[in-house]
Amino acid sequence: MTSRLSLVPRPLLGALALGLAVSASGPSRLSAQAPATSPASDPTLKRLWTLGMDSSHVERLAQALLDSIGPRLTGTARQKAANDWLLSLYKQWGVEGKNEQIGTWRGWRRGHSHIDLLTPRVRSLEGTMLAWSPGTGSKDLTAGVVVLPRFADSTEFVKWLPQAKGKFVLVSAPQPTCRPTDNWQQHATPASKARMDSLRAAVNTEWGGISVRGTGYSNALGTGSLGVRLEEGGVAGVISSRPKNAWGTIDVFESYNTKAPAIALSCEDYGLVFRLAENKQSPTVRLNLDAALLGEQPIFNTIGMIKGTEKPNEYVVLSAHFDSFDGGSGATDNGTGSLTMLEAMRLLATVYPKPKRTILIGHWTAEEHGLVGSRAFTEDHPEVVQGLQALFNQDGGTGRVQSVNAGGLVDAGAHLRQWIAAMPTEVSSVLTPRIPGAPSGGGSDDASFACHGAPAFGLGGIGWDYGSYTWHTNRDTYDKVVFDDLRWNATVTAMLAYLAANDATTITRERATAEQIRPQGNAAAAGGGGAFAWPTCQKAPRKTNPRLR
Question: Would you state the torsion angle of the CA atoms of residues 209, 214, 216, 219, taken in this order, to the nearest 10 degrees?
Fold first, then answer.
């Protein structure tokens, strides 16, 4: 029976073929690793270890993806260029590849962001446009700044709106400190720290929620429904800030404005502008933004395949989302997960080109907007879900993989233990199986498969301050990648995929009970102390699905 995945490489873009394709020959500049030790007697495992650790391509792959192509915001030309770059690599490696359209998403082009304070003094401000913000036509837009007041209700807010016409409106919490909590913990007196903790909590409560300052509208992940309503009221633009509890990092999310530009400022510069406005010192800000809203554009999963020789209708899937937000380069979310799977596929194509089961790689689009790409894939390819032997998903930053979640399936734990035991001691001694684990509830793309009760394994690693410094921030760039860990992750994933593809038996789908899951430290996934229900599958939106609240 012919698989529904008929994969034919697309023609390459000229620019990609000339400038972005990475040569498949020659290792990166790496120091030699020690040879794998027992009990890895399997010659394929030994070869995967040697190539993965001594002849890795991850540094050059990462530089091409993260520096040259850059961030992969859903619906943009950068994301499509990255899809085509993947196909160019798969063609070099002899892997069948396809860009598979799964719907459309709002298109956008990011250009420059020039932001300056003009009065009461001149300062270039640290900030950028939010994703999908309208620009200023690359012309200067200069206006005064006002603070969003506190309103009794939405009616009072609507009455106030004419006063904001033609002005930039500050819509985020003015942080009383831009120092991280650990800095206060280390240096402040207990009383001083307690006071600061109280101030922080109060200001975040005042400016958070689905009714910011009593307006009846939300900032959502950027400017949300509040930004849209301010735009309708004729404001010049919206100024926001979502600082992390870290030095110099801010979240850079999205806007649904179509006329009034929306920008994010650093914690420090947002606080400066806020205090000037609050103290009636007449701040004036100038924006010069280059951007273009392009309407609904096709979006694609990139799928690679090495066809199985004995059980072609059973599948092992390498899984990572390929899209990113674009305040940085999308390096650790999820460039590193994508590179882990990409390099693992290269290793498998080199060492294990005729697997027993079919090996697929899924570079999913629009994960950041509700697991759109992976959900669409399960809807379009139920035969893969039905025939899934194992899916390995990584989406936790650059850190070294140390655990594998068995996904809440009783039989999966025995297989996972068997695979790890067969691996080199360097791996088996530190890689911990979480058995029975718990099904992914929606944090990443393994959830799209786990909800069907399929074997979906989440790879867990060292944090490297992921949540504070790189997750969705302006600092998520190439230099944050830990390449020793990335080489390890790709090598371990390739070995797991090989062992799963070569396994003599198929994983059954008996589900663990909540009582079995909770002792493994998965109480949240198991419904805390209440009744546990297996996660339910959700349909993939096939066009832009606004998040305004």
Answer: -40
Residue 519 burial class via C-beta count within 10 angstroms: exposed 0-12, middle 13-18, buried 19 and up? exposed
Spatial separation of the C-alpha atoms in residues 360 and 304, rounded to whole Å: 6
Q: Is the peptide bond before 43 cis (omega within 30 degrees of 0)?
A: no
Residues 6+ apart with CB under 8 A from 87: 9, 10, 12, 97, 98, 99, 302
Distances (CA, A) of 147 to 76, 358, 369, 528: 33, 58, 30, 41
Q: Are 413 and 406 in contact (CB under 8 A)?
A: yes
Question: How does DSSP classify residue 393?
Answer: E
Closest CA to 335 of 218, 170, 477, 212: 477
Taking only the tens place, the pLDDT of each residue in 388-410 is 999 999 999 999 999 999 999 99
The pTM of the whole model exceeds 0.90:
yes
Q: How far is the C-alpha of 176 from the C-alpha of 197, rounded, in Å?
A: 10
> Taking the CB of residue 521, how many other CB atoms lie within 10 A of it?
12
CB atoms inside a 10 Å sphere around CB 291:
22
Task: Give the separation between CA 176 and CA 292, rounded to whole angstroms.
Answer: 35
Residue 465, Ramachandran bin (φ over 0: left; ψ between -120 and 50: alpha; else beta):
left
CA dist 56 and 483 (Å) reads: 10
Tokens linked to 143: 């206006």
CA atoms within 13 A on the CB side of 116: 11
| Three-state DSSP state, 192 | helix
Tens-place pLDDT, residues 454-468: 999 999 999 999 999
pLDDT at 39 over 90: no
Residues 110-136 as b or e (16 or more Cβ within 10 Å = b): beebbbebeeeeeeebbbbbbbbbbbb
Q: Cα–Cα distance between 512 and 284 in angstroms, integer?
A: 60
- Cα dihedral angle (261, 266, 270, 273), rounded to 10 degrees? -90
Measured between alpha carbons, how far is residue 85 from residues 82, 190, 258, 322, 387 in Å? 5, 54, 31, 12, 29
Angstrom CA distances, 33 to 36, 51, 55, 355, 461, stand at 9, 10, 10, 26, 21
73, 323 in Cβ contact below 8 A? Answer: yes
CA 435, 40, 60, 306 torsion: positive or negative?
negative
Is the CB of residue 92 less than 8 Å from the CB of residue 531?
no
- How many CB atoms within 10 Å of residue 5? 19
